[in-house]
Amino acid sequence: MNITIIGTGYVGLTSGTCFAEVGHHVTCVDNNQEKIETLLRGEIPIYEPGLADLVKANVDSGRLKFTTSTEDGVKSGDIIFIAVPTPPQPDGSVDLSFIEKVAREIAECLTPELGYRVIVDKSTVPVKTGDKVKQTVRRYAPDGVEFGVVSNPEFLREGCAVEDLLHPDRIVIGSNDEKALALMQKLYEPFVAPVLVTDINSAELIKHAANSFLALKISYINAVANICEASHADVEKVAEGIGMDKRIGRAFLNAGLGYGGSCFPKDIKAFIAISESLGQPFDLLKEVERINADQMNRFLDKIREKLWVFRDKKIALWGLAFKQNTDDVRESVAIRMAKVMLKEGARVIANDPQAIATAKKFGEFEGEIDYTPDMYAALDDADALVIATEWPQYANADLTEIARRLRTPLVFDGRNLLDPADTKAAGLEYECIGRAAVDAS
Ligand code: UGA
Fold first, then answer.
1. What is the DSSP letter of 377?
2. Domain ranges, residue 145
3. Are 383 and 407 contacting, i.e. CB atoms less than 8 angstroms apart?
4. How many CA within 13 A on the CB side of residue 212?
5. How many domains does the chain have?
6. Residue of 157, 206, 269, 271 to mutate, ligand 1, most atoms within 8 A of C-beta
7. What is the pLDDT of residues 189-240, one digit of tens each?
8. Residue 251 belongs to a domain with what CATH number?
9. Residue 263 bears catalytic tag
10. Is 203 a member of any domain?
11. Do 71 and 36 share a structural domain?
12. pTM (whole model) above 0.85
């Protein structure tokens, strides 16, 4: 099928590439000339494992194209996806101006001669946005234009986006238009995944409700971790024990510094705002946010307790990205923590396997922060090691080397990556999250 994706950000680029990979003809549109030129040169503006090879293969096969022309995209695509940003506003509600603008632009390019078009919202949007898109397109398109509107939310995780797109747990298609639903089902035929067909409002709600539930799971285990600390229990064992119940599952029960990234913090805030606007306040989610924010402060207190003061201390920081396998530092707890340490007078030397460049570009640091691509070099003469991101290379670190390089053998592990018994054997003083039972043994 011929499809068009408007907005070549994370979701647009990865989705478009994967649609091309399964055999569709895809035109990716973006109004950012520089981004399109980068892509036309074969360069990828984000770090996402496996994506660069896939983009190249599909460009070479002629199934993936890039352009700045919305008109070309609207002409060529039977199905037109909107995948533009939906940033938060100061009050937590979603700024839908990019969606509105693209809906208008699509409408202005539509003509009755083009025939029926499906307009699909892939961006994460508040429930009832589909109605507004429909209204806008109807208002700005010439008379006689035929189209259907669909909500098809995306569930990809950064760092494993290609896998999540090619082998999704489920595909959600929401529309009140039979013709649009039939075309969408045809589009997804090459994918082996259950398809859930819903009305448009339910599909929009599924996305916010799913992300909120995952964030709830993280805050839940973090609250349990704090109880474990106070009662000399081990949160890793508790998570295992809870997770063995099939109704609960072990995933997203990793205690740590809490969630960050471009999705959860924004989406939870949005869902709180949406529920309030509908007269159904969702206070449980406010508690999820509170626990999440506390998690970093509790951890910083733990570090202060051992170091006494940050001033003039050299801190080795492992991790800048908001999670492993990405260079994304948006809403990264690692960056937030570095800022606090810098503000209190520490010198921070940071390592990250992918995110040093993005941290330099977007970190907005004021104090003295240095970077090193060598995780062990960061430790030289440092007063403590702080682990803030769950990269596998940190979990597999050489503990003897850590002990040898640090000035004082203090390790604060905000992601429970290391084994407490092994750290003890290596001569390290080790603090982690919710594992008082292991610390005490
Ligand atoms: C999340 C969802 O997982 C995707 O399904 C969704 O499509 C995406 O948001 C989106 O809305 O676009 P993502 O933000 O890429 O994906 O990252 P996650 O893997 O969900 O991790 C989010 C945060 O939670 C990270 O900071 C991570 O460190 C933290 N986390 C995750 C924990 O603290 N504990 C866990 O057990 C799992």
1. G
2. 2-198
3. yes
4. 21
5. 2
6. 157
7. 999 999 999 999 999 999 999 999 999 999 999 999 999 999 999 999 999 9
8. 3.40.50.720
9. yes
10. no
11. yes
12. yes
